[in-house]
Amino acid sequence: LQVSELAHQSFSKKPRRLPEVRLILLGERETGKSSAGNTILGKVDFFQTGVVTEECVRQQAAVATRQVTVVDTPGWEGGIAGTTLDRVKREIVASVALCPPGPHALLLTLRVDTLVRAGHVREHLELLGEGVWRHTILLFTHGDQLREGVDIKQHIQSGGRDLQWLLDMCKGGRYHVLTRDKNNSVIEGLFEKIDDIAIIMRPPINSLQRNFLIICSWNIVSLLFLNMYKQHLC
Ligand SMILES: Nc1nc2c(ncn2[C@@H]2O[C@H](COP(=O)(O)OP(=O)(O)OP(=O)(O)O)[C@@H](O)[C@H]2O)c(=O)[nH]1
Ligand SMILES: [Mg+2]
């Protein structure tokens, strides 16, 4: 490749593909977080499913060409009267420390066959700070439970104000549907959405651009000093 081509590539806005992806699964109890973790990592038994997840668990695997880290968390209590234990809240907060230097995305699991209560979700998700929404993707689980003839778009349309509010909070209406069948393209589609978040969250200048600016500034300062030195000699 010519130097000019390399420069063009590093400065262009072409979507980049993260070689390493760090994710946290969050959601109400029994929404399928642990199952989703296994599906994402392409494993059957990394995370224990069908039993209550009591503590955060981290698992890693190579998925296609990416190194993927998934942190599974205990779910918060659902139902109107459900009160989440402090221990569970502490685990949710601690999940971030398990994927240093921080997650690329938070996957909020929502069952397609259950009503969403936005206030309840917000209360728990914002334990990680108000900025969480910029990293959140709604992950619809139990996709196989959608009513016959209803697709996910129709489900969202009929999901009411709470679901719409959540979608609005996840800038650009980011969501993904997970089904149980092992379909690699479904997972790749999810990773591409995470790539998009990483681009939006990327600092205004990347490291190559920063080096370029440092070299330019250095050259300007050197020229100024050289001029001053010449004037001093004359
Ligand atoms: N039909 C169907 N069942 C699912 C799906 N995902 C998970 N399940 C089942 O739902 C139950 C709960 O799944 P888990 O993955 O353990 O849910 P969880 O959110 O980790 O549960 P907690 O750790 O208790 O909060 C299990 O019996 C799963 O087999 C799905 O996509 N379709
Ligand atoms: Mg679990």
From TrEMBL:
It holds the Pfam family AIG1. InterPro entries: G_AIG1, GIMA/IAN/Toc, P-loop_NTPase. One of its GO terms (molecular function) is GTP binding. Residues 18-229 form the AIG1-type G domain. The keyword GTP-binding applies. Gene3D superfamilies: P-loop containing nucleotide triphosphate hydrolases. It comes from the Eukaryota. Keywords: GTP-binding, Nucleotide-binding. Belongs to the TRAFAC class TrmE-Era-EngA-EngB-Septin-like GTPase superfamily. AIG1/Toc34/Toc159-like paraseptin GTPase family. IAN subfamily. This is AIG1-type G domain-containing protein. It comes from Sphaeramia orbicularis.
